[in-house]
Amino acid sequence: MTSPRTERMLVSAAELRDWLAAEDCLVFDCRSDLKDPDAGRRAWLAGHLPGAVHASLYLDLAGPVGPQTGRHPLPEATAFAGFLARSGWSRERRVAAYDAQGGAYAVRLWWLMRHFGLPVPSLLDGGWQAWLAAGYETHSGEVIVRASPTPRLHAAAADALPVDAVQAGLAAGSVLLLDARGAERFAGLVEPIDPVAGHVPGAVNRPYTNNLDAQGFFKSPEVLAGEFAARLGETAPGDVVHMCGSGVTACHNLFAMELAGLADSRLYPGSWSEWIRDPARPVATGTA
Question: Which sequence positions are flagged as catalytic?
Answer without folding.
Answer: 244
